[in-house]
Amino acid sequence: MALSKEIYRELEDIVGEEFICSDPAIMPSYHGSDLGAVVLPENTVQVQAIVKTCNRYKLQFSAVATGWTGSFKKDIVYIDMRRMNRIIEINEKNMYAVIEPYVITAELQAECFKKGLHFNVKGAGSNCSAMLRGHGHLDQSTSGDDRNHLAIEWVTPEGEIVRSGALGSTDEWFCGDGPGPSIRAILTSAVPPGVTPGVFTKAAIKLYHWAGPPKYDIQGLSPKYTLPEVPKNMMARYYSFPSVEKMWQAEIRLGENEICMELMGFNVSMVAANIATCNEDDERIFKRLNKEKKGPGFFVIIAGNSDNDFAFKKKALEQIVREAEGESMKSLEDPETEGILIAQCTRVTASIRETFRAGGAFSSIPIMSQRDLTIKWAIGAGEAKLPLIKAGHIVDDGGAFFGWGVEQGHVGKTEIFCKFDPANEKAKAAVEKWSKEQGRRAFDESYFALMMGEVSDDIKANMCHYDKWWIALTRAFDPNDVAPQGGPLV
Amino acid sequence: MGLEQYQGDVNMCCRCSACKFIPLQHVKSYDFSYVCPSISRFQFHSYSGGGRANIISAGLKNGFNYTDKFLDIVYNCQMCGACGVSCNYAMDMELQEPINELRIKCVAEGKTHPELERVIKTLKKTGAMVPVQGKRGDWAKGLDLKDATKEKVDVLFHVGCLTSYNKDMHKLARATAQILKKAKVNFGIAGDMETCCGGRAYQMGYEKEFLKQAKMNMSMIKKAGIKTVVTACADGYHAFKVLYDKYELKGDLKVLHITEYIDMLIKEGKLKPKKALDMVVTYHDPCRLGRLGEPWIHYKGKKIPGDRFVFDPPKEYRRGTKGVYEPPRDIIKSIPGVKLIEMERIREYAWCCGAGGGVNESNPDFAEWTATERIFEATATGAEAIVSACPWCEVTLSQAIEENESSLKVYDIVELVAKAL
Q1: Contacts of A80 in chain B (CB under 8 A)
Q2: What's the CATH code, domain B126-267?
Q3: Looking at chain A, which residue has its C-alpha nearest residue B321?
Q4: What ipTM does this complex have?
Q5: Size of interface A-B (CB pairs under 8 A)
Q6: Does B7 touch chain A (CB under 8 A)?
Q7: Is the same domain home to A97 and A77?
Q8: Which structural domain range is residue A280 located in?
Q9: Same-domain status, A93 and A195
Q10: What is the mean pLDDT of residues B180-188?
Q11: Coil, strand, or helix at residue B295?
C-alpha cells in the first residue's frame, strides 16, 4: 500500500470501507497501474472531501468514468466514478438532461427515446459516459463538443464546488453561460491538452428532437440483432462518389440543407465492421464492399417527422447525391442490413467492432477543424498507411480515413485509424512512427496543428504557446499540483 | 485445457465495459441496463468480466498473487456467462471460459473458499451438493416409477440434488413424473442410485470432483443402456449436455431439458394442457438452460499470425445464441388462460437468479441481492408470478420474495403444466 495508513483511513472515512481499495489484486483491472488507492465516491460531497484530502497531502488524483485503456501515474488516488450513475432529471420542456458521470449513453438514450428526445452520442460508443464531450455519428443534427454541455457542477482541483451558468445563480440547469458564472474557457474538452482538471460531478446535456421510434423492436439473438422492418419514415444509405471532391460537394450541400439526422463519413471498412458479426465476416464483407464502391463515400440516415417531411428529405438527399455523381451501394439497401445500420448507428453500439475487435488495439489521429482541409490531409495520411498494411502490421482498410461535418458541415471531425495487435511490437512501433510523421506533416503542410501527445516546440510557438497559457491557467486552479492533465471520461 | 490457452483472448480486452451491461442494442431503460450481478453489487471494475480478464492477463504474465481481495473477486461471481454474451456482441474473444479456468486454477492451488470446501466435503461423502435428509429417491414414494438402472426405459429422468433432498422441491419431481406418465413416456429414475451431476462442483472450480461425478453418471448410464436423459434442473442439463461433452464423456447420449421434452410432447399431440389457469406470468431464463446451455464446440485450431485475432480454421464462439429459449415460452403460451409478459432482460442476456457459481453457499447475501434485483424486474412487468425452469432459481427467487415481503409468486414451469393437464 503506497498511501500512508493515515491518508488511507481518511479516505476510508469519506467513502466507507467497502468503497476504497489498494490491494494489488485490483490493479491490473485499473489499467495495470500501481495506484495509491481506488476510491468510489457516491456523491459530490464525497468527491469534494476526497479532493480536499488529496490537496492536504499534496497527493495527485485522477477521476475516471467508464474508462477505456489509459495510463496513470504511480501512487495516485484513482477516483472511479462508477457509483455516481444517476440520471437526475430529463427536462422535456427545456430539453436537457442532468446526469452524473457514470450514466452511459445507452441508458440515457433509452430514456430519452421514450420522450421523443435524443442527444449527441460520441463516437466512442453507447458503452461510454453520456457526459463525455466530443463528437459522433449524429453531429449534423445534434451538434458536438461544448455546445452540448449546459450548466455543470465541477469540483475544482482544490476541492471547491463550482456551479456554472444558470446553476450558479439559480437551481436551474438550462444554460452554461449565465445568469451565473460562465467559465466555458475552463470547462472545456475531454480531449487533451484541454482537459479540465478537477472532477465534473454533474452536467446538463442538451437534448434534441428524436424523430425515430420510442424503442427499437430488436429481434434475433446476439451477435446478430435485426429490426423486423425499417422504421417508418427512416432510411439509411451508403453513397460512394467518383472522387473526394465530389463527395465533399455532396456532404457540404447536405449539411447546409439540414437534411440528415446522421451523416457519418464511414469508410467501407467501418461499414463492414458494423454489419459483420465476427472478424472473418468482417474481412469478407470489406472485400466485397471495396469492389462495390465507386470511390470515397459516406453513410446517411434521414428521419422524417411526418410522411411529407420524410418525402422531402429523401427527394432532396437523392437529388444532391445525384448531382455529385454519387451512387447508393445496392447491397446495403437490403432491408435487413439497412435496419441493422439504422439501429446500430443511431445507438452507436458498434464502435467496439469498428476499433478493437479486429486486433485488440487501435491508434487514431482525430482532428476537429475545417473539414475540406482536413480531408486533404487525411488522403495523404491514408496513403501513408498502405506500406504498413502491406507489411502486415495493421488491418487492411484500404488506407481509409473517415469523418463528418458538424451542424452545417463546414467544420467537422476527420479521423484516421490504424488497427493492430498490441502484442506485436513491430506493428506498434510502425504505427507510432506513422502517427508522428502524419502529425508533423499536418503542420508542415499547413493543414492543422495536432496538439496531442508530444508536441514539438515550433508547433507550440506557432500556436501562440497555447500550451503555456493552458498550463498557467490550470495551475492557478491547482496550486498543489494534484490534478494531472488527463482524466478520460470515456 | 488450462488457463494459459486463453492468454490471447484476455489480452484482447479493451476495457470497454460492454460486459457490465446487457448487449447495448437491447438497453431499454436505465433501471435494467446491467447484466453482471458482480459488478453491480461490488462496484470495483475488477468484479466485471473485463476486470477479471485484465487480472488473468496480468497473472499469466507476472504470476498470480492470491490476496484475500483476489479470492473475494474470484468467488463473488455466479459464473453466469452474461459478461461473455455482452462482450461477444462486439468482440471475438473468450471471456467466460478463462473465468472458469481461473477458479479451477485457484482450487487446484488450494486457494479455496471455506464454504465451498464444506459443500464439496458433503459431495464426497454423500454424492450430493446439498445437505442430505432421507434418501435421494424419497420423493418418488408411492408413484410406482421404473428403476432405470434395472428396467429398460426410453428416458432417464435425472432429478438432481436440490429437488431430491429439499422436501419443498419434491413437488417439482412429482409434477415432472406426472407429466411424463400422462404422455405415456417409457421413463425411469435412478432413485437412490442417482448421484450428483457434478455441474455445481465445476462452477465452484472443483474440476476433479466434477469429473468423478461425471464418470460415475456416464458409467451408470452406459451400463443401463440409456440413450436419453431428461433433466428438470438447468444445472444438470448444463452438466450432462455441455460439460460432459466438453470433457468428451457424453458420447452419443441425448440430453434434453424437461422444457424441451414437454414442448416436443405438446407439439406431437401427446400432451395437451387443457385447464385454464388465468394468470399473468413472466419467464426467467435460467443461465444454464439459456446462454450457457448451448452445445459445446470442440475447436482445434491456431491463431493466424498477423494483425487480426483470427484463427485457422475460423473459430466459432459460444455467444449464447443456441441456448434453450423458445421451448419454455411455447409451453407457457400453450397453457389456456396464461398470459406471458416479458421482462427487459431475457434470453441470452437474462439477469441471473443469484444461485450460480456456489454464490448461495459462499455469499448468501449476494445471492439474495441478485435475486431481489430480478424480483423487482419481474414485478415491474405487472406479472403476478415469475416462472422458471430450474429448482435453484425457484429456491433463490422464493427466498428473495419472502425477504422483501413481495406478493409475487414463483413457479417452476412443470408445476404450471401439471396444473393445466
Answers
A1: 43-45
A2: 3.40.50
A3: A221
A4: 0.96
A5: 194
A6: no
A7: no
A8: 234-353
A9: yes
A10: 98
A11: coil
Please give the tally of structural domains in chain A: 4
Which residues on neighbouring strands pair with residue B188, listed in sequence order?
B146, B156
Q: Which residue out of B44, B87, B363 would a mutagenesis test of the A interface target, given it has the greatest number of A Cβ atoms within 10 Å?
A: B44
Amino acid found at A116: G
- Phi, psi for residue A384 in degrees, rounded to 5: -70, -15
Q: Within its chain, how far is the Cα of B231 from the centroid? A: 12
**pLDDT band for position A70 (cuts 50, 70, 90):** confident
Chain B residues 306-325 with a CB less than 8 Å from chain A: 306-310, 314, 317, 319-321, 325
How far apart, in whole angstroms, are the C-alpha atoms of residue B86 and residue B71? Answer: 24
Contact B17, B27 (CB under 8 A): no
Q: Hey, are the CB atoms on A223 and B319 less than 8 Å from each other?
A: yes
Side chain identity, residue B232 = A
> Which domain-ending residue is among A322, A353, A384?
A353
> What are the CA-CA distances from residue B41 to residues A30, A170, B51 (Å)?
18, 36, 14
Radius of gyration of chain A (CA): 23
**Is B404 at the interface with chain A, CB within 8 A?**
no
> CA-CA distances (angstroms) from residue A459 to A438, B170, B371?
14, 78, 58
Q: For cell 449534423, what's the residue?
A: A140
Helix (H) or strand (E) holding B400: helix B391-403
Looking up residue A54, the CATH number of its domain turns out to be 3.30.43.10
* The overall pTM is greater than 0.90: yes
Q: How far apart are CA B300 and CA B302, in angstroms?
A: 7
A29 → closest Cβ in B24, B45, B349: B45
pLDDT at residue number A487: 42
Dump pLDDT digits (tens) for B338-374. 999 999 999 999 999 999 999 999 999 999 999 999 9
Specify the amino acid at residue A155. V
Q: What are phi and psi of A278, to 5 degrees?
A: -160, 170
CA dist., res. A480 & res. A475, Å (int): 8
Region A116-141: mean pLDDT is 92
d(CA A123, CA A125): 5
A448 neighbors A373 (Cβ within 8 angstroms): yes
pLDDT at A454: 77
The set of residues, in sequence order, having a beta carbon less than 8 Å from that of A458 and lying 6+ positions away, is none
**Which residue in B140, B82, B175 sits closest to B389, CA to CA?**
B175
Amino acid (1-letter code) at residue B256: L
- State how far residue B279 is from chain A, nearest Cα, in angstroms: 26
Average pLDDT over chain A, rounded to whole?
92
Measure the CA–CA gap between A35 and A52, rounded to whole angstroms: 18
Q: Check which CATH number belongs to the domain holding A343 and give it.
A: 3.30.70.3450
- Asked if residue A465 is part of any domain, the answer here is no
CB A266 within 8 A of CB A238: yes
Query: Torsion over CA of A254, A190, B18 and A235, rounded to 10 degrees?
Result: -10
**pLDDT value of residue A190:** 52
